[in-house]
Every structure is written in C-alpha cells, then in structure tokens.
Amino acid sequence: MTEPQKDPTGDVTATATQAPPPQDRLVQTRHTATIDGHEVSYTVTTGVIVLKEESEKRGEKEGEFEGEKPRARVFFVAYTREDVDDPASRPITFCFNGGPGSSSVWLHLGAFGPRRVQLTDEGDLPQPPFRLVNNDYSLLDLTDLVFIDPVSTGYSRPVEGESAKAFHGFKKDIESVGDFIRLYTTRYRRWLSPKFLAGESYGTTRAAGLSAYLQERHGMYLNGIVLVSAVLEFSTLEFHHGNELPYVLFLPTFAATAWYHGRLSPEAGSDLASVLAEAEAFAIGEYAAALMRDAQLTEEERLAIAAKVAHFTGLTPDYVMRGNLRVLDDRFFKELLRDQRRTVGRLDSRFAGIDRDAAGERMEYDRSYANIQGPYTACLYDYVNGDLQFDSDLPYELLTGRVWPWSYKEHENQYVNVAESLRRAMTQNPHLRVFVANGYYDLATPYFATEYTFNRLQLDETLSNHVSMAYYEAGHMMYIHVPSLAKLKADLAAFIREAQGPGA
Questions:
Q1: Please, what is the average pLDDT of the chain?
Q2: CATH class of 25-56+65-235+373-500
Q3: Domain map of the chain by residue range?
Q4: Does the reported pTM lie above 0.85?
C-alpha cells in the first residue's frame, strides 16, 4: 500500500491510491423550439452537481465545522430562454416526479419541456421505433425550467463511500432536493426570479414538504406550486382494514371508469359530468354513512347499498356484497372487464390490459404504464446522449425500486400528511398560490381524494382563492392525452401569470 506523502508543512497530500474528490460535470447546448406558434431560442444545461453538506469536526468543540462533505451527484436538465432582457428576474420552475423512485422524465418529456415523446393523440402506445417531437405546449415560453432527478433516480447517485439508503426517506428526500434548489438558485443568480415548484404524484408530497422547508430553512419564498395528480394525505389512498376513506373517495373515479368502458346502465347518466355528480353525492352521503354504521345496517339496507355501489361501479351487487360493501382498487382493476378477459389501468383507467389468467385476483401489469415505459425510455436515452451531448454509461433509472424500503420514520403510527406543511407555508407567505391538476381517469391519486384534502386544509378565508383546481378527461399523466395537454398549458399559463402579480 502506498504511504501518503507529506508536504513541508506536515499536511497529508493525496496519493495514487486516493480517489480525487467528485466534481461537477456540466454540458451546455443551444436550441430553438416552436411554442404556441412562436420560435423560442434557449440554452440547455445538462449534468450533475455535487451536493455537499457541512460536516462537524470530529473530536473538536461541538458546532465547529471542518468544511463541506460531498454526499451525492444530482442529475438535472435546465432550460433557460435566451431572448430576455433580464434573465435574473425571469420566472423559474423546479420540476420533479414522484414514485418514490421516479425520475423527472415524465414531466420533462411529456408535459413541460420543449420536446415531448410522441404517443397517439389519446396517449396509447405507438409502434416502435419511437420519436421525440416539438412540444407546442411547453412552458418554456413562460418560465425557465429545471428538471431534477432525486438521488438513485435518473443519473443521480450517492458519491463513493456514501449510502444511497440515507437518501431514501421522506425527510432526507425533501432536504436533498431542497438543498439542490438552493444551490442552483445561488449559482445561477435566480434569487430575485419568481419561483415555482411543479411536482407530480409523490412529487406533490415532496412539493408540499418543500414549500415549508425552503421557506423555513433557506428563506426561499415561492410564487406558486403546481401539483399534478396530488397526494398530500396518504390516508385517502391506503386501503387498510379499518380505514374507510379510500372506499368513499375512489368511488367517483370507479364510476368514471365504468362509464368510459360502457359498463353503466343508461340510468346512470349519458355524460361524464352527470355520472360524477351523482356518484359524488352518493359517495360522500349515503355510502359514507353506511360504512360508518356497518354492523347496524339491516339486511335490506345492506342490499340497497350494494345495489347502488354496483350501479355506480359497473360491478354486480353480489360481488359488492361479498366484499362487505367495499371495493378494493386492485380488485376493481381486475373485475370490471373480467368477462372480456381485460383489466383497466391504474395510472389511466381508459386503457385496457390483457392478463393470461382471467380468473386471477389482481391484474398482472398496468397497461397504462406499459404504454409509456418503452417510448419514454428510448427517447430519454437518445435525447440526453444525442441532442444534449451528455454521455453516460449508467442506466437511467426512469422508475426504480432501488429506493425501497422508503423511510417514513417521521410518521410512525400515523399516515403521512403534508397538507399542514402547505397550509403553513401559504399562511406565512400569503402571496403563494397553488394549482392542482386532476385526471378523471386517475386511479392512483383520484380527484375526489384531492378535493377532500383541500376542503379540509383550513386556510384562512382571505387565502381561500389562492388554490385553483382543473380537471382533465385523462389519467394520472393527463398530458399524454393531447387535448388535455393543450388545456393544461392554457390553465398553467393563466396560473403562472396570476401568481406573479400585476404586470406579469
């Protein structure tokens, strides 16, 4: 083993056996895109920034610091518009997806970036090979964009000697993403820019947590937060014995799905709006009351409730009765189209899958995820290594299970709930606005569950109009449906301008 060498001052110097400290690696390229009929010139910065933490001296007085310790390489892709008078004051939006374990590829190449993956207009799988096309509905004409891959997703990894597990948890995830945002904002002089967050799915959980963390830890006040397919209260989604909320809150989306696939009787309504209005009223009223009474129900009352649940879900009264009036999401995916030997998607219930075993209890795969996995994977690799000139031999982790088990130790003996973090941030910064995008056919984070959360946010009445919601006739990733993508762009354009205040 090579011995370390000392310089004349006695300090130990690096040897051939010591690895050099990790370095940032950044690549810049220039491009143009057509957005809303106008040509936009922009610069893309692609690469990894080494995220560091202050470390205390060992054996010295408490509170003394020896410097910054590298912890992780965080991969990002940043888009900045070129033809602006004052880049430092231009809006900037930090974007990420969820999982946990998801990269930012979905919002990046599906919704907000200047290039998007081409699916069919309905969002179905096209025939390979796949293509990236110009995104006419990109947000780059309105705001600069930074797409962040949390540690262990995309090309982001812990540095040598650091444990990936340390980043795989609720609290550390918020801190590491928040610290990256602070670092980027400082290095690229964006502290005086109007600032936005945009998260999808678990990324909305992260965004709500970040709203408080950025504000309280780093003094960073935001203008707006975009929540795409939101989940802030996990009690609304977890089908645990004794938790009745999901049975109530999923029912309207079960009804939308059954209506879409033609499984409802004509009496249920001829259009989606009327079906949902009746389903919501039944769910929050008679159905919720029945589940609370449960054993007190007479047999006649139980049969009547089962018939109504069947009426709205397209299932049979007998099936509902055998489930004790409760329809699990996993069972619904499999049961609705069982007689056709088909399943319905979780991320987007418009799409039907094919299982080998039509008698099984649960679907074998989610057709709505299979529709997007291949196209997004191929286009990401080609785009980053080609147009953006960032070469890497690492696997790009689009959606990985490597982050599991995910730690929720801060929420032991309770459901995760970040709604209060968001309320606190909105109260302390009364200019903060929130936009929520909901897909009617989203059976991962149903819109009625999101409404339930925000109805109980307990914002002061002076802030009640600072939350706006929009709805789309697609699923969890509503932007794969081109008409919904166009509507999402129009809705977000209005929100971004409003969140900047007069004169924006």
A1: 94
A2: alpha beta
A3: 25-56+65-235+373-500, 241-365
A4: yes
